[in-house]
Amino acid sequence: MDTIIQIMKKYDFSEMETLVYTTLLEKGVMTGYEVSKQSGVARSKVYNVLEKLIKKNLVVVNKSEPKLYNAISSDEFLERLEKNVKNDLNTLESQLGKIKEQEEEELLWKLENYESVSNKMEHLIDNAKTSLLIQIWENDLSPNLLKKLQEAEKTVKNFVLILFSNEHHYDIPINNFYIHGFEEEKLQDFGARWVNVVADEKEVVFGTVENDNSSVDVTWTYNKAMVNLAKEYVKHDAYTLKIIKESPEELKQKYGNEFEKIRLIYRED
């Protein structure tokens, strides 16, 4: 019931209205007194609640005495609610589409929590048209996000994904992806796992995520310098991993079995 109450609140139905409606739905025709008794809504308030539900077309009342109340079926209610929501969304799409959005290209926007990061990544993936460059950890590949990536790979021309996994779980239903394989070293560099999603070379979500998702330091932006930096970061990983994949034995002889020497780039090394 708590779930129903919370969802109904989103559509402007109070807790008492939900209790009265669901009681009538379950018990059938009742007087106001009976509704109060069965629903737990005080008798002093139940008639006002019933009147509100009548105005919202969720409850009907007879024309004779004693007054009897009945709920419309859940099917009818949900059908009407769905229709209203669709109409509202169509109106918003039409009206908001007329408002020219000003792109603040130089601003960097902080995403406050893991949910907002996931939502923004899904939005970029859903709306990418020409290119999608991604660095992502297995932890962040929810079933929903993975499904969106599968769909994007079919429609986006330039699609590449770099996959990281602490447990080295690299079995995903994506064709064009590269296994990073240097997770331990990268975690030492960053101190946390990270996400990098670049869509159509114009928009990016980039930053770090703590292992338990409790804290994020992730930015979303159209800033050209940030987009180019993030894009080249993914491409550079892909170039390197492609070479390693194609010539592993030769590179192991030169850089070690774990390619540990490939990271020795400073003079003192």
Automatic annotation (TrEMBL):
Q: Name one Pfam family in it.
A: Regulator_TrmB
User: What parts of the sequence cross the membrane?
Assistant: none
Q: Which superkingdom is the protein from? A: Bacteria
**Which InterPro entries does this UniProt record tie to the protein?**
TrmB-like (IPR051797), Tscrpt_reg_TrmB_C (IPR021586), Tscrpt_reg_TrmB_N (IPR002831), WH-like_DNA-bd_sf (IPR036388), WH_DNA-bd_sf (IPR036390)
Limits of the Transcription regulator TrmB N-terminal domain: 8-73
- Annotated Transcription regulator TrmB C-terminal domain ranges read 108-228
Name of the protein this chain belongs to: Helix-turn-helix domain-containing protein
